[in-house]
Amino acid sequence: MKKIISIILCLALCVTVLASCRSRNADSGNTGTLKVAVLESAYGSEMWEKVCDEFEKVSGEVNVQLTADKNIEDVIGSQMKSGDYPDVVHLATGREAALTETMIKEGALTDLSDVLDMKVPGEEKKVSEKIIPGFTETLATNPYQNKKTYLAPMFYSPCGLFYNANLLREMGWELPTTWDEMWALGDKALSEGIYLFTYPTAGYFDAFIYSLLASSGGVGFYNDVMNYREGVWDTSEAKAVLDIVARLRDYTEPTTVANSTGDNYLKNQQLVLDGKAIFMPNGTWVVGEMADAPRTEGFEWGFTALPAIEDDRYSFTFFEQCWIPQEAKNKEAAREFVAFLYSDKAAEIFAQYGAVQPIMDMTDKLSGENKLFYSVYENGAKAVMGGFAATEAVEGVSIYNTLFESVNSIITGDKTVEQWRNEIISVSDKLRNNLK
Questions:
Q1: How confident is the model at residue 95 (pLDDT cuts 50, 70, 90)?
Q2: Bridge partners, 156 (sequence order)
Q3: Which value, to the nearest 10 degrees, does the dihedral of the CA atoms of residues 227, 233, 238, 240 take?
Q4: What is the model's pLDDT at position 46?
Q5: CATH of region 32-156+318-379
Q6: Per CATH, which fold does 158-317+387-432 belong to?
Q7: What is the mean pLDDT of the chain?
Q8: Measuring CA to CA, which residue among 366, 404, 373, 405 is closest to residue 162?
Q9: For 404, which DSSP code?
Q10: What is the pTM of this model?
Q11: Exposed/middle/buried for residue 333 (C-beta within 10 Å: 0-12, 13-18, 19+)
C-alpha cells in the first residue's frame, strides 16, 4: 500500500511540475509555438524552413510552425476572420488580394519600431545597424507618416527592364537611355518582326510607373503623387508618364494582354526568352522563375533602368515586407524572429536562393547575374522607394487597381488616356480626403 501511495504522490508531483512549465511557457512571450505564415514566391519555401530551423537553435525555447503557400492570403485570411492569427506574416503590398493593404488601413499591425533597437539574436549589432539606410524611412515601412515602423523591409530587388543582351548584340542595337531612343529601337525591331515590349501582368506596372514618375518630376514630385497632392495628376509631368504607357500600345507583343493573368504570365516572360519581345518590366526573381524555361541560343540576361524622361534614370527598389498582426498571441517571440531575419545566418540562407536582404555590404557577397542586377545603382541609375500613403478604407476605391490594372485596357485601346487620367484623379481625390 505504501508503495502505491508513493507512486501516486510521485505522479502528482510530476503533473504539478509539468503544469508549472506550461504556465511559464504561456507567460513568457519568448517561448512556446510561433506561427509564421509566408508567401511561397519564386524563391521557394525551402529557405524559410532552414531559417526557421536556425531560429529554433538560437532561441532554444521556440517551436516554429511554418505555413508557406503561393496564395497565403487565402490560407490565413479565413483563419484571421475566425480569430486565429499567425504571429509573423511575410507578405508584401501590391498583391491582387491586397491583404497587407487591408491590415494597414484597419490599423491591424503591430508597431515594430522597437525591433529596430533590438540586438539581432546571436549577434552584437542592433537591427538598425544592419539595415541599409533609407529602407525604414519610406511609406512602404512607415505607412502612417508618424515615424513609426509597422512593416519590416525584406528581400529587395532593383526593378527595371529585363532583356536578352545577346539579342541586342547580335542585331547591333544600342541599349536606349532615353524614350526617343526607345521608340527608335521599337521601330527597328518591328521591321525585323520583333516587338519592343511585353509585361507579365498589369500589376508589374507599379515599379514601372513609379520609376517614370521620379524620372519625369524628381523624387519630390513622386512623393506628391504618393501623398495624393491635389492637382498632381493635372501636371505636365504626370501627363508625360501616362502618354508613355499609352504609346507602348504600338510596340507591345499582341498576346500579352490575353496572357497577363496569374495563370499565364509566364508565357509573357517566355516571349523575351524566345526573342519575340525585347524588354519586360520585372524584378530579379524572374531569373529563378524562368531558370528551367527554354531559350534562344546564346541567351544572356540583361538589365537596365528605365530610359530617362528628363535628365535622370530611375530604378524602383521593390522590397517585400514582414509584419506582426496586432492580434498575434506570441508577440515577443515574433519580435525576436523578425530581428533574426537580419542575422548573417538568415541572410546567407536567403541569398543561396536569390533572395537578398537589405543588409549593409550584402551586394559585395553577390556574384554572376545578381551582381549585374544590383550594380544598376552604381552605373548611374537613381533609386526610388516606397508606395502610396495609407488611408482609411474607401469602399470600391483602389489606387492600385485604377493606376496599374487599367494598363491592360490602355494597351487594348478599350480606354483612352484621358479616361484613365480622370479616373486616377477621382480616386486620388477620394483617398486624399481619407488620409490616416
A1: confident
A2: 319
A3: 170
A4: 98
A5: 3.40.190.10
A6: D-Maltodextrin-Binding Protein; domain 2 (3.40.190)
A7: 91
A8: 373
A9: I
A10: 0.77
A11: buried
Region at 98 (left for phi over 0; alpha for psi -120 to 50; beta for the rest) = left
Every domain of the chain and the residues it spans: 32-156+318-379, 158-317+387-432
Do the Cβ atoms of 403 and 424 come closer than 8 Å?
yes
- What's the confidence (pLDDT) of residue 368? 82
The span from the CA of 151 to the CA of 266, in Å, is 29
Which DSSP letter does residue 279 get?
Answer: E
DSSP states along 133-201: TTTTSSTTT-TTSSS---SEEEEEEE-EEEEEHHHHHHHTPPPPSBHHHHHHHHHHHHHTT-EEE--S-
Q: Same CATH topology for 32-156+318-379 and 158-317+387-432?
A: yes
**Confidence (pLDDT) at 31:** 62
Cβ(122)–Cβ(345) under 8 Å? yes
Taking the C-alpha atoms of residue 219 and residue 211, their distance in angstroms, rounded to an integer, is 10
Angle between helices 46-59 and 344-352 (to 10 degrees): 160
5-26: burial string, b at 16+ Cβ within 10 Å, e else: eeeeeeeeeeeeeeeeeeeeee
The rounded distance, in Å, linking the Cα atoms of 160 and 163 is 10
> What is the tens place of the pLDDT at every residue in 183-233?
999 999 999 999 999 999 999 999 999 999 999 999 999 999 999 999 999
**Closest to 223 in 3D by CA, of 323, 145, 310, 307:** 145
Give the pLDDT score at 22.
30
Task: Kindly report the number of other CB atoms within 10 A of residue 433's CB atom.
Answer: 11
Of the candidates 109, 52, 16, 22, the residue with the CA atom closest to the CA atom of residue 325: 109
Report the DSSP pairing between strands 301-304 and 277-282.
unpaired
* Amino acid, res. 217: G
Q: Is 306 exposed, middle or buried (0-12, 13-18, 19+ CB in 10 A)?
A: buried
b/e burial code for range 374-412 (CB count within 10 A of at least 16 → b)? bebeeeebbbbbbbbbbbeeeeeeebbbbbbbbbbebbe
